[in-house]
Amino acid sequence: MVEEKWWKSSVVYQIYPRSFCDSNGDGIGDINGIRSKLWYLEQLGIDVIWLSPVYASPNADNGYDISDYYEISPEYGSMEDMKALIRECENCGIRIIMDLVVNHTSDEHPWFVEARKSKDSPYRDYYIWREGEKGSPPNELKSCFGGNAWEYSEETGEYYLHFYHKKQPDLNWENEAMRKEIWKMMNFWIDMGVGGFRMDVIDVIGKIPDQEIIENGPKLHEYLQEMNRETFGDKNLMTVGECWGADIENGSLYSDPERKELDMIFQFEQMLLDQVPGEQKWDLNPLELKQLKQAFAKWQQALEGKGWNSLFWNSHDLPRIVSRWGNDKEYRVESAKMLATVLHGMKGTPYIYQGEEIGMTNYPFSGIEDFFDVESVNMYRERKQMGYPEEEIMRSLCAKSRDNARTPMQWDNSPSAGFTEGKPWCRVNPNYAKINAEEALKDQNSIFYYYKKLIRLRKEEPILIYGSFELLCPEDEHVFAYTREWMGKRWLVAGNFYEEPVYFDYPGKGRALLSNYEQDSETQLEQMKLRPYEAAIYEII
């Protein structure tokens, strides 16, 4: 018996509000800017928006440092604007998924303001504190943003834990009173009408810092089950957890319906393939298609009948996929469509990051002055001090910096790409004159309309939602191919990942349902020639 859930047939569009659309000319995207572009998202066909944080924040980490969960940051608008967005999305058949950031708060959150004043504060135990002499942190835990994860607090002579920025102190999930505050906040937003939550670095909340256990701590799943019981478990909502440390063994636990935790997770195995194993994300490893296929297939097979996959190439934390696995020059359009085909053809809920649907590319950075992201700037400083060559540092930053994803959405060829009438908060990619939404909407063969066709196909054909997955030719170094099978139907999805034409073999004939090249109505699949970055979905006949 197949369990039907609305989020299984949905397609999610992630909005990074700061960079999406500015309505008031201050150079920062905002809620009313999003409202002004709902027609565009309706036309694309998506039915869920994942909204990166719009809560009150001092913006040490662009909104992922929250100072008040119950208020909207003034740069984004007001709570009335937020209510209007939820209401207007509902009228369009679009649900809003809020970004839930509960591993940490801002150090300007009232809880932490009170906690750092005194060891006797009732909020002291909402955070993680340890004794230690100044200059001698409790242990060698590292922050993801560089440096030690412990920050000395002069007020009480103790260290607090911050696994990210020092202005993002980690919450103590062992504290029941703190957890109840989180449940209260989540229920506030549920009552507001949101459709669910994307949970930021949720696999870190069970950490045991004294044992240097960061991800997948022993109480993690206990906390998630309690969250499920106290908030969304009896509601018809969607939940997805960001889990950088997930492997098959623990990753399959999150979305098992019997365990009553989450609906799905973001695991990043396929996105970590260009990182040297055991090293930092900046230590680049050559990309290999065989590894990519194995990573996807492993998760497709492991969760079959036991959980659910999220399917994504991009996010606010990742470089642009067409610049990573595609060809963002001569074959930008073809490779963007190919990458979309291969991803959306798999089993799971697909996610589109703003600009992906028009083939936005990485930014052509020329120096450290081009970067805004705290993680990137800290990495540059650390590696310069360690003696890394400038050229090597810049190569890593250009390839992997989060700033690649955070450049303003390219709406048209007017100044600042139509994102703002003022000065944008960060640099606009100079290719906006050619790559923009207005141009895409004029061209029926654009990447935009291809995504629209993919989304429509998914909504019309249950095989894309419920069909089984089987990887083909796992050792092939050029072609990513697999079949989907459901209720007597079999579909073939195949994509050439390179600019050299290649041959691919599959017995029988196929009817092309969607392709990024012109196709005959029926195709002999044996010794089929795939052109540069060609991809197609065939119904086997």
Uncertain runs with pLDDT below 50, 5 residues or more?
none
CATH class of the domain at 464-540 equals Mainly Beta
Q: Into which percentage range does the β-strand content fall?
A: 15-25%
The appropriate CATH architecture of the domain at 464-540 is Sandwich
Comma- or semicolon-separated keywords:
Immunoglobulin-like, 21 strands, alpha/beta, globular, Oligo-1,6-glucosidase, domain 2, six-stranded antiparallel β-sheet, 541 residues, 16 helices
Describe it.
The strands form 5 sheets. Strands 11-10-9-5-2-1-13-12 form an 8-stranded parallel sheet, covered by helices on one side. Strands 14-15-16-21-18-19 form a 6-stranded antiparallel sheet. A 3-stranded antiparallel sheet has the order 6-8-7, with no helix packed on it. It is built from 16 helices and 21 strands. The protein is 28% helix and 17% strand. It has helices at 31-36, 38-44, 79-91, 110-115, 176-192, 220-230, 248-254, 289-302, 321-324, 332-344, 374-385, 390-400, 403-406, 437-442, 447-460, 463-466; strands at residues 12-15, 48-51, 55-56, 68-72, 95-100, 129-131, 150-153, 158-161, 196-199, 238-242, 264-266, 310-311, 349-353, 468-472, 479-486, 489-496, 502-504, 509-515, 522-524, 528-530, 535-540. By secondary structure, the protein is of the alpha/beta class. Among the domains are: 110-161, Oligo-1,6-glucosidase, domain 2; 464-540, Immunoglobulin-like, CATH 2.60.40.
Summarize the structure.
With 541 residues, this protein is an alpha/beta fold.
